[in-house]
Amino acid sequence: MQLEPGKKIYFASDLHLGVPDYASSLEREKHFVQWLDHIKSDAAELFLVGDVFDFWFEYRKAVPRGFVRLLGKLAELSDAGIPIHLFTGNHDMWIFDYLPKEIGLKLYREPQEREWNQKRFYIGHGDGLGPGDHGYKFIKKIFKNPFLQWAFARLHPNFGIGLADYFSRSSRAKSGHKDAVFLGEDDEWLAIYAKEMLQEAYRDYFIFGHRHLPLDIQLNEAGSRYINLGDWIQYFTYGVFDGEQMQLMEYPLKGGSPVLWTDNKSAVQ
Fold first, then answer.
1. pLDDT average, residue stretch 188-194
2. Is 202 within the bounds of a domain?
3. Who contacts 147 (Cβ-Cβ below 8 Å, separation ≥6)?
4. Is the pTM of this model over 0.85?
5. Is residue 1 part of a domain?
6. Total domain count for the chain?
7. Do 58 and 50 contact (CB within 8 A), yes or no?
8. Start and end of every Calcineurin-like phosphoesterase domain (predicted)?
9. Is 268 within a domain?
10. What phi and psi, each to the nearest 5 degrees, are found at residue 122?
11. CA-closest candidate to residue 216, choices 234, 241, 199, 196
12. Which of 74, 166, 196, 199 gives 20 to 30 Å between its CA and that of 98?
């Protein structure tokens, strides 16, 4: 696909709306909606790469309360003809058909490949990829089990959502602070995974979330890059591709125009 002149592809992940409390979550939601307003004039497509919500479970006749500003703005962008792509993450994997039906977005549960202007992208949330973390990979299989999802849906929403919210709040992913430690290129599991994928086929960019840490790592001499989108809890970072360059940007919570993310000690120069 060739981008129209002046159009851009945007990527964001890990809002974790709902934590740590209502007031701060609402502030971040309003800030993200402001960013959506900022990009809507030149957005060709929008990719939300997982964990938009800290917890989400759809009952057949009920969905979690809140997030009306975000959902309304996404519907507005979709109605304006901007394709929206939503990836489930490890916190909101129980999104089913409500958001695709009401907003018109496309839902993905596995990494996807795209190509714009002869640049190849590999896009996914990132959970369960790469070496290690066998405990989570086992739990993810449980959470994806259709019978267990059916059994959970038998719980009253007040109890079921409350119970799940309690466990979700106990996760280290709710704040991102413990994740904000660069492990080194040789130990960053998504960088390892990306290098393994490069053995199968060349990609220019690997775009992931989940890590809660903005990263831009050159993977090989050919220029392939692993970009982690950071989060909208601590960093307020996002990715943008303008047809020529892929950049990691920051939309400051305290106001001001977007700036290039530069606090990145992990980038290979």
1. 93
2. yes
3. none
4. yes
5. no
6. 1
7. no
8. 8-213
9. no
10. -120, 120
11. 241
12. 166
